[in-house]
Write a structure and sequence with these properties.
Strand 1 (about 10-15), helix 1 (about 20-30) and strand 2 (about 35-40) form a beta-alpha-beta unit. It is built from 13 helices and 21 strands. The strands form six sheets. A six-stranded parallel beta sheet has the order 2-1-3-4-5-6, with helices on both faces. The chain starts with 7 loop residues before the first strand and ends with a helix. Helix 7 packs parallel to helix 8. It has helices at about 20-30, 60-80, 90-105, 120-130, 175-180, 190-200, 230-235, 255-265, 280-285, 295-305, 325-340, 365-390, 450-459, and strands at about 10-15, 35-40, 45-50, 85-90, 110, 135, 160, 165, 185, 205-210, 220, 225, 245, 270-275, 310-320, 340-345, 395-400, 410, 420, 430-440, 445-450. By secondary structure, it is of the alpha/beta class. The protein binds S-adenosyl-L-homocysteine, iron/sulfur cluster and FE3-S4 cluster. The site of S-adenosyl-L-homocysteine has 17 residues, from strand 15.
């Protein structure tokens, strides 16, 4: 058996959504007691995990080319008498597990997102019989992985907390219900406990995560089912939690309680990622989003009434099958009406196994590209305007990491804008008032507002 006392190097490469980022950090947590310490690069690693995303096309190709690149590190390690485990995790593993094992003999393990709590067992099995016992685990076990992940976590001042997983919505373009499985909400008490532990470990901000986070409906201690709004209120009462965010939400699940929570809970940050995908009712229907463009406008209006400084971000898909110029124009109009502070936009890509993959009236690639460009120009102009409107304002910034330039720290404003600020390293992990001095579409620059407290701290 391998010596579990000596430090072993674990390199994890992560693609995809915040859920995957969270999962990668939990995999690191669960492997730490086995002696694995995470490292920044693949050189000389004892184990490599590729945590993959299947959301858009070429996902599988990307994984294979990454495996091709990393193979040489495994060969180098073996040439010097060592051993390296190579694993594929995440949503491509879930969707294409057997195919990966077949096509990539260097891969020792393939396992899906619902099996991470079984990782120590799988790793021991694989290290006991290097190369002979390849593992594929893409089950959806009946027990929850959350009950079996270790409590110890290493996250910084801004920590993620997964409260809900999976999706029952079945938008016609999307693989998530197939790769992540059915919706599951963790019990309230477990989540509040985890929030307390995160704060004990230095977290000031907690971002509640789920594929469909506002579909949250977890068991409360009072034997009632709690929605996201009530959960946020409970978390805001945890000592030390200063800022709360949640992502990713669905317009259909924005209920009255959640809207009230935006009004009542100051710690809930004034930035909401609320994907709409399209502004055309016909396309929204074909996507199975189950709401209209006007429903979305109303939800935004209600939320803004509750929290006037709330800014929105969204996801858009252009070139969904059957999308006409008019449908695209409807999307553009929705963007003009709502005004976004940031957005992600994608060309539709047909995902095998989803209903939209079999739809007719495909949109030509060049038309998709033109629409994407037009949409991005509009949203870019909107971010720039919003960012510039912040110049001169002072707002609390949570410094998360060192900046690219010496003497700078990087953080986020309440509106989730990235910001670079010349600041003392002691401010790292702190929330500090910053005055915005300049702005581009992508980021802000600011300076620390000198208060006696900060002066005292950096003295
Ligand atoms: N749960 C979230 C989205 C998760 S996927 C929601 O309901 O909105 C993240 C984003 O990827 C989606 O919002 C969508 O814009 C994009 N996406 C998903 N499937 C896609 C596909 N087949 N083609 C193009 N973009 C896609
Ligand atoms: Fe995918 Fe729709 Fe579920 Fe979001 S709500 S994860 S887009 S199926
Ligand atoms: Fe990608 Fe899976 Fe997230 S497909 S977007 S990593 S849920």
């Amino acid at each position: 058996m391998e010596n579990t006392k000596k430090d072993k190097k674990l390199y994890i490469k992560t693609w995809g959504c915040q859920m995957n980022v969270y999962d990668s950090s939990r995999m690191a947590d669960i492997l730490r007691p086995l002696g694995y310490k995470t490292v920044e690069g693949p050189e000389d690693a004892d184990m490599i995990i590729l945590n993959t995303c299947h959301i858009r096309e070429k996902a599988t190709d990307k994984v294979f080319s990454e495996i091709g690149r990393l193979k040489e590190h495994k060969e180098a390690k073996e040439a010097s008498g060592g051993k390296m485990l190579m694993a594929v995790a995440g949503c491509v593993a879930q969707a294409e597990g057997d195919f990966i094992l077949k096509r990539a003999p260097v891969i020792d393990m393939v396992f899906g997102p619902q099996t991470y709590h079984e990782l120590p067992e799988m790793v021991l099995k694989a290290t006991n019989s290097f190369g002979k016992n390849r593992i594929v685990n893409t089950e959806f076990p009946t027990i929850s992985k959350f009950d079996h992940l270790p409590q110890e976590q290493q996250q910084g001042a801004s920590a993620f907390l997964s409260i809900q997983e999976g999706c029952d919505k079945f938008c016609t373009f999307c693989v998530v219900p197939y790769t992540r499985g059915a919706e599951y909400s963790r019990p309230v008490e477990d989540i509040v406990e985890e929030a307390r532990r995160l704060v004990d470990n230095g977290a000031k901000e907690i971002t509640l995560l789920g594929q469909n986070v506002n579909a949250y409906h977890g068991d409360g201690k009072d034997n009632k089912i709690w929605g996201l709004g009530r959960l946020i209120k409970a978390i805001s009462e945890v000592n030390g939690v200063q800022q709360i965010r949640y992502t990713t939400s669905h317009p259909r699940d924005v209920d009255a309680e959640l809207i009230e929570t935006h009004r009542d809970v100051e710690k809930l940050m004034p930035f909401l990622h609320l994907p709409v995908q399209s502004g055309s009712d016909k396309i929204l229907k074909a996507m199975n989003r189950k709401h209209t463009a006007d429903d979305y406008r109303r939800i935004v209006e209600d939320l803004r009434k509750a929290r006037p400084d709330l800014v929105f971000s969204s996801d858009f898909i252009v070139g969904f099958p059957g999308e006409t110029d008019q449908d695209h124009e409807d999307t553009m109009q929705l963007i003009r009406d709502v005004v976004f502070a940031s957005a992600y936009s994608f060309k539709f890509s047909a995902r095998p196994g989803t209903p939209a993959a079999n739809m007719q009236n495909l949109v030509r690639e060049d038309v998709k590209s033109a629409r994407l460009m037009e949409l991005q120009d509009l949203v870019n102009a909107q971010y720039l305007e919003f960012n510039q409107s912040c110049i001169g304002k002072t707002m609390p910034v949570l410094f998360e990491r060192k900046g690219r330039h010496e003497g700078q720290l990087q953080g986020r404003t309440p509106f989730y804008q990235a910001i670079n600020v010349p600041a003392n390293e002691r401010c790292l992990g702190e929330i500090v008032d910053v005055t915005i001095t300049s702005a581009s579409a992508n980021a802000l620059i600011g300076e620390v507002k000198i208060t006696e407290d900060v002066v005292a701290k950096s003295a």
